[in-house]
């Protein structure tokens, strides 16, 4: 079972009145550890060691982020409550050089359990409205430590993209009696944008993908959160996560950077029957040697311009999904 | 007066059902001209020349983008109508090496007129719901041509961020009888986050800034679009645009990359009394030697984490705004 360590931190939240959205301020982060070359704070350093993990070894470890983006709720000038802090780091393995795509299936299976455990535990806190689980992989998406790890933010609000999905799916449920995600799945799981299937799990390029190689991975069964997945589904999910990340590495020919985001039901005490657990993957590459950089249209208007057709990228990814695994993908040749 | 040339193009729009947002597909763009080193397609090439501007010289020129992101409305399977295409490039000067910050005031004054003209002309088309004017400056925000220029997208929908602002400001107008932007201006124009003023124009770091050095520039008078600005306001705006862009260059000590986005009233035929013209600037740097890279929280949840306090960055920018102009800012030292 994972070990959880706690640290104190005090970021601040402010409401942007123009878009009615929360913005987080974490000024200590501007000087945070940046790609250290000699010492990895996520490697086990032994019981006398000085890394974040003073252990001889571990399977998966969870601890609270030293440079958190979210902390005790200070919006209302309320007293600081360390117990409500929730910015956690999930270290996938003690082995520094691996990536999620290279882990054994039983380790990824354990990771699914860790996520389910953290979703339940953090989500049970009264002040936590949304448990946001994600992974940033690669310098291209701002990673400051290469050791394989993900993050969990326990948010005191439902973030904008989750909110938008819940609204759209809620309307769809009212009008059609079915969750929007279930409807999309039935279209996509076997259509021209399907990329891989693993028993109870299906992955596809969504028809209105924002990122050139965006992939969504769903449990076929309607489950609102990762905590609801059954034993067999957790194994399928572990294999599907290895399938998607390995597919990217084989397609690009290098260890592919990505953002992996879990969308699921808020934990604010309301019922969210229109939520449907899924993973969204956004690799920043638009070609092997070019990144999709966000600019004026995406950043100033909120509209994405995608230079690739989802049907074309899905066809490429299907081919990579079916290809034999490579041993040691080389590093990404571009940082821009 | 600007010269307008037209080209045919056929991008595609798809609705993302999950967030109920349009995504644009422009597959020809993936092979678009990328930082050519010997030939600049935006320099005047003479009347026999092969650049996009076959002229001996010009003041400001506007032409239709060869690699547009938006084109004839194909959402409903309607016939292609080239007349509705509206992705324009605005070249600020024939001088390749300049930036907006280095233009003479009367050229920027002419640019304001060009924007007002394009807003009116493109906005008068029945199929154009929003005229989105912006500039991407620097390789850090994906610029593929260094010649000083901006862009105008004539969109068949109101984009998400404009929509969110209109909703928030509409509610505020109902509740308080005043546009939200006017309320914010009265707080910010002389407060701890003010950075510069130029007669009828005021610039500040918004209190819930997403980007470390984000600045918003407003006309103090409630005008819904750039077309409503009067003569004296247009001169003030020209000087304020030089003020903000020059301030960035002096603060960072190099020609600072940024996204500049104009937010104003939609042109869909409805009345938008809650709209208030303003410019938003997002430089990607969080320090002289580090970029703010968007990652899992921004891209997967829609929530920004800012490593700086708006009051601190405003104080730094005020100092730079008051400093004497530098001659030749050096190039940005980082691309990551």
Structure, briefly:
The structure is a homodimer of 336-residue chains. Helix content of chain A is 26%, strand content 20%.
- Residue stretches of chain A low in confidence (pLDDT < 50, at least 5 long) are 5-9, 73-84
Strand order of the largest sheet of chain A: 1-4-5-7-6-11-12-10-9-8
State the largest interface.
A-B, 77 and 77 residues
Number of domains of chain A: 2
First-to-last CA distance of chain A: 39 Å
Tell me about this structure:
Two copies of one chain form a homodimer. The first copy, chain A, contains six helices and 15 strands. Chain A is α+β, with helices and mostly antiparallel strands and 336 residues long. Chain A folds into two domains: 4-155, HIT family, subunit A (2-Layer Sandwich); 176-257 and 268-322, HIT family, subunit A. In chain A, strands 1-4-5-7-6-11-12-10-9-8 form a ten-stranded mixed β-sheet. In chain A, strands 2-3 form a two-stranded antiparallel sheet. In chain A, a hairpin with a 4-residue loop joins strand 2 (12-16) and strand 3 (21-25). In chain A, helix 1 (105-123) crosses helix 4 and helix 4 (231-252) packs across helix 6 (310-322). The first copy, chain A, is globular, with a radius of gyration of 20 Å. Mean pLDDT of chain A is 88; it is low at 5-9 and 73-84. At the A-B interface, strand 2, strand 3, strand 6, strand 7 and helix 2 of A face strand 2, strand 3, strand 6, strand 7 and helix 2 of B. Strand 3 (21-25) of chain A pairs parallel with strand 15 (305-306) of chain B, so a sheet runs across the interface.
């Amino acid at each position: 079972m994972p070990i959880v360590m706690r640290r104190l931190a005090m970021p601040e939240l402010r409401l942007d009145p123009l878009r009615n959205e929360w913005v987080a301020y974490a000024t200590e982060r501007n000087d945070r550890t940046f790609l250290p070359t000699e010492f990895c704070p996520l490697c086990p350093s032994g019981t006398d060691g000085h890394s974040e993990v003073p252990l001889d070894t571990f399977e998966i470890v969870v601890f609270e982020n030293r440079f958190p983006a979210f902390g005790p709720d200070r919006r209302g000038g309320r007293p600081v409550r360390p117990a409500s802090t929730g910015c956690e780091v999930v270290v996938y393995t003690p082995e520094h050089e691996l990536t999620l795509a290279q882990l054994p299936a039983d380790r990824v299976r354990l990771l699914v359990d860790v996520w389910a455990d953290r979703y339940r535990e953090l989500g049970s806190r009264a002040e936590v409205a949304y448990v946001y689980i994600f992974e940033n992989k690669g310098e291209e998406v701002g990673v400051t430590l290469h050791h394989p790890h993900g993050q969990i933010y326990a948010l005191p609000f439902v973030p904008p993209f989750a909110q938008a999905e819940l609204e759209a799916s809620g309307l769809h449920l009212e009008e059609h009696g079915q969750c929007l995600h279930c409807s999309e799945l039935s279209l996509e799981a076997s259509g021209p944008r399907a990329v891989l299937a693993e028993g109870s799990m299906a992955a596809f390029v969504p028809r209105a993908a924002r990122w050139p190689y965006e992939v969504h991975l769903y449990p076929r069964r309607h489950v609102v959160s990762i905590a609801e997945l059954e034993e067999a589904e957790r194994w399928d999910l572990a294999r599907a996560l290895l399938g998607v990340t390995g597919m990217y590495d084989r397609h690009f020919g290098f260890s592919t950077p990505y953002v992996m985001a879990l969308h699921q039901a808020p934990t604010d005490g309301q019922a969210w029957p229109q939520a449907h657990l899924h993973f969204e993957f956004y690799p920043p590459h638009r070609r092997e040697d070019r990144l999709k950089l966000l600019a004026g249209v995406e950043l100033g208007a909120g509209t994405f311009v995608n230079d690739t057709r989802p049907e074309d990228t899905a066809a490429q990814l299907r081919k990579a999904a079916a290809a034999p695994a490579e041993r040691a993908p080389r590093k990404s040749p571009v940082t821009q």
